[in-house]
Amino acid sequence: MTDRPKLTITKTKSEWFWDIVGYSCYIGSIILLIVIWSKLPQEVPAHYNALGEVDRWGSKLELLILPIIGAFLLIMMQALEKYPEIHNYPKRLTEENAEQFYLNSRKMMNQLKNICLIVFSFITFESISIALEWGNGFGVWSLPLLIIGAGIPIVIGIVRQSKIK
After folding, report:
1. Three-state DSSP class for 46?
2. Best-predicted range by mean pLDDT among 13-22, 98-107, 137-146?
3. Per-residue pLDDT, 5
4. DSSP reduced 3-state for 47
5. Which of 113, 114, 97, 83 is closest to 162 using CA atoms?
């Protein structure tokens, strides 16, 4: 498969921090969904347009889709995080700089995994809030914030990778 070195690199404090935040949001959204399930109306927001407005209502069972997709992403991205040697790297990867490349790539994967969990938790909470008339949702700022939130770790990771000699 690859002749790249396989290294054991200890998880950093920032990776632990991101895991705690991401997993807490994800588990918290599932707990909230379980606790509030019987109070939810039969129809809940099922889709939002680019302005953050509900453009489709569906069965409350559709709220289960986000935690299921979140679990799938969690498992897949956790596996990718565990084996950074299979990630895509520039040709300048050597045995001497492999640890730097692996750590940078793994951190980026860790952040993206946890941002996905946070985003899915956010959407679940927003759907519950609208369904129970706790509020009108987060509106027009939802999409830009989600895109920026997911884009920042990628940009930072690419910049850091470009600095590895």
Report:
1. strand
2. 13-22
3. 76
4. strand
5. 97
Residue from 65, 29, 27 nearest 45 by CA? 65
pLDDT of residue 151: 92
**Amino acid residing at 35:** V
Place of tokens 């039969």: 42
* Cα end-to-end distance, the chain, whole Å: 25
> Could you give the angle at which helices 98-131 and 142-162 cross, rounded to 10 degrees?
180
Task: Look at residue 127 in the predicted model and tell me its pLDDT.
Answer: 93
Would the pLDDT of 165 be above 80? yes
Mean pLDDT of 37-57: 91
Q: Is the dihedral of CA 28, 34, 35, 36 positive or negative?
A: positive
Q: Look at the block and give the residue holding tokens 């632990």.
A: 16
DSSP type of residue 3: -
Classify 92 as helix, strand or coil: coil
For residues 50 and 55, give the distance between their C-alpha atoms in angstroms, rounded to a whole number.
Answer: 10
Band the pLDDT of 2: cuts 50, 70, 90: low
Report the residue count for the chain: 165
Cβ–Cβ under 8 Å, residues 131 and 44: yes
